[in-house]
Amino acid sequence: MTTLSPGDKQEYKSAIIAQAQQNGLERVEVNPEQTFSVTRDSKPIGMLIQGKGWAKEVHPVCFIGWSKDGKHVDQFFLTIGQDEWEATGCHKISSVGVISGKSAQQVKIAVIYEVEAPDHYASNYYILGIKDTNDDIYYDQVTTNKFQNSYLKTIAELRKAYNNNFN
């Protein structure tokens, strides 16, 4: 079983800020309330780090970092505000949680964002998977796309939909 618990270490902070700056972000902020230690079968496998920065001083972009040792950044993803989400800005990270079942072979973690569209705020999702072989994380575009325009607002709603409809 994979679980999330509050990420109380901040040893990663300078490394994640440097990584965000290398990816073109300024005024980088780490969100400790949405940063979590990830354990599988009671064994720590990494830290999921959430944050936000500004591209070109005006466009808010969120990011996810993954640290296996809590100090170094092993993986880094720009999320809302870049690529397929470049038309929206990242307002805030609303919630993070495991959405796959307790005995699921493929672990899925959902991040729900509040996004800024030109004329309104809305929710958007970013689904991560954890590789069994090396504990790396990856962006699960297929599952993320299934949730688009679903209007689900909570991790519990995403978990129910994922386990009932998307498996």
Structural class: alpha+beta
Helix content: 10-25%
Radius of gyration: 15 Å
Oligomeric organization of the protein chains: single chain
Instruction: Report the total helices.
Output: 3
Count of domains: 1
Beta-strand portion reads 35-45%
Encode the helix/strand succession as letters: EHEEEEEEEEEHH
Question: Average pLDDT, to the nearest integer?
Answer: 90
Strand elements, count: 10
How widely separated are the two ends? 17 Å
**Biggest β-sheet description:** 6 strands, antiparallel
Shape: globular
Give a brief rundown of this model:
With 167 residues, the chain is an alpha+beta fold. The chain contains three helices and ten strands, in the order βαβββββββββαα.
